[in-house]
Amino acid sequence: MDLKRIIPKSYQDELPIESLIVSGKISKDAVSMDVLFVGAGPASLAGAIRLAQLIKGNGGPKIQIGVLEKSQNLGDHCLSGAIINPVCFQYLFPEIENRDFPFRGQVVGDNVYLLTPQHSVRIPTPPMMSNRNFFVASICEVVRWLGKKAENLGVELLTGFPAKSLLVEGNRVVGVQTTPSGLNRTGKPGPQYIGAVR
């Protein structure tokens, strides 16, 4: 069998850096934030929550923390299920029991099979594939739950704003430029249109 070596980079266009990082002044209509997380996935929301907790716990100065999300509602673009190690949730919310997190159920065992065209053979579960005592969850439910926790800590959730590029002045990032949301197939504003902000 002749296996051809495939390098993904050889089949991908170069990133358009000039459109992803743009120089310019901040618009008068810009929403001012001290810290902005782009994309309301589990990692961004956990980061925003932890930052808000640290500032609140240390009596630090009040800062504006925001999370920018392209979908109209949190979780709309998070459609997968997942197996979650609860340690990150326990770290963020030590006062909450595992049963009160947005999980569906606990993993009680794993089976790994080697599949052939005719048979399946059970093999020992490799340690890195063992999910015992982890939890099954819906990512969209996890994101919505984390969003409520973030809002309770004063994090501002900015939904319906797709990020277009970083806005820089010299070597300093000063903002994120968004792109209009809700354009129809011809590029004209549709019923869900939301204009861009800088």
Write up what this structure looks like.
This protein is an alpha/beta fold and 198 residues long. It has a single domain, classed as FAD/NAD(P)-binding domain, CATH 3.50.50.60. Helix content is 20%, strand content 29%. It contains 4 helices and 13 strands. Helix 2 (42-57) packs parallel to helix 4. The protein is globular. The model has no long low-confidence stretch (mean pLDDT 86).
Short characterization:
This protein has helices spanning 17-20, 42-57, 87-92, 139-152; strands at 21-23, 35-38, 65-69, 81-84, 105-106, 112-115, 120-123, 135-138, 156-159, 163-169, 172-178, 181-183, 189-194. It is of the alpha/beta class and 198 residues long.
Reconstruct the topology from this structure.
Elements: H1 17-20, E1 21-23, E2 35-38, H2 42-57, E3 65-69, E4 81-84, H3 87-92, E5 105-106, E6 112-115, E7 120-123, E8 135-138, H4 139-152, E9 156-159, E10 163-169, E11 172-178, E12 181-183, E13 189-194
Parallel strand pairs: 1-10, 2-3, 3-9
Antiparallel strand pairs: 4-8, 5-8, 6-7, 10-11, 12-13
